[in-house]
Write a structure and sequence with these properties.
The chain has helices at about 5-40, 50-60, 70-95, 120-125, 140-150, 170-175, 210-215, 220, 235-245, 255-260, 310-320, 355-365, and strands at about 100, 110-115, 135-140, 155-160, 165, 180-190, 195, 205-210, 230, 250-255, 265-270, 280-285, 290, 295-305, 325-330, 340-345, 370-375. It has about 375 residues and is an alpha/beta fold.
Amino acid sequence: MDHEELKKIRDEIDVTNQSLISLFERRMELVNRVAEYKRERGLPVFDGAREKEVLEKCAAWVKAPHYRESCLWMMARVIEASRRYENKKIAEQKEAKSRVTPASAPYRRVGYQGVPGSYSHQALRSYFAGRDVSERNFKLFGDVVSAVMSGEVDCGVLPIENSSTGGILEVYDLLRKNDCHIVGEKIVKVDHNLMAVRGANMADIRRVYSHPQGFSQCAEFFAQHRDWELIPYFNTAKSAEMVALEGDLSKAAVASREAAELYGLEILAPNINSSASNYTRFVVIAAAAQRDEEADKITVVIGLRHEPGALCRALSCFCGNGLNLTNIESRPLEGGSWEYFFHLDFSGHLREKNVERAVAELEKNTSYLKILGNYRADRAG
């Protein structure tokens, strides 16, 4: 081969490269649309099943067997570049949409799930004690989030974790899927009581109503009354309200002492929760992130690739930067077998250097990262 022939081959390679670049740009335009779909639905960028499917198809399309390994290596790099672009694009869109309010900004309209007398209502009253706020109650957790996002209320109060039974899974999922932010928390001591209309006694009871968490937290008590039918209801205080309205001696509710007083019910068995140290942590959510120089707690959601060491590498970001990880909760990834999101709480402020390093390392070692909030921890529990 002489120099002229080499030049012709290289010219042809340049033309081929030009075609490859054009095709790659077209591919990235499609990736951009996929990124928008994932952002709207709160889905992680990394989808192991889809990437495996793409590589298997590419392997089948290779006509020359001796090029297969090189082709698959190239496509794996293309997929990696696409993933990086999706992560960057989603982060930029969220940053452009995000609003930040100072910690002093007033929240005047506050929403909560349930009715007066519920533990959510107690958390609201305790957190906003001394402040002039109007209260709005909603039937479902999702209704509270929707009201916050639409501007119907300035913020909402939701239960997220109980010291006896763990995380409130529905709330974890709602926070991940919606562009709301945690701006505060309140820990409430939970003392469940069995209550019924006046004149009823333990022998009369046949059906008991409460939120599933209420039943779970009183499992030992109900193990002694297996002949009772336990019926899940919207929340504890709503159960008390319903029992009071129906006036049926055979029906009881599990709720707070405040709910019993509010709805005129008689407590048949006080403090029936299995653990005497029974606390529920509530979060205050808003549509805008809050800028608070005294914030000392951070909540994030991460997604991990389904590969050895993925969780270990993510957790090492906290240990390596001297950060105290206070809670971890896993949630399954929709459409992915044995793939999970992890909700993490840790101490710190986003402006601290070790926190900045940890977040940067998390971005490199996860397929999805969402900062839910940086707020003041409640030390009451």
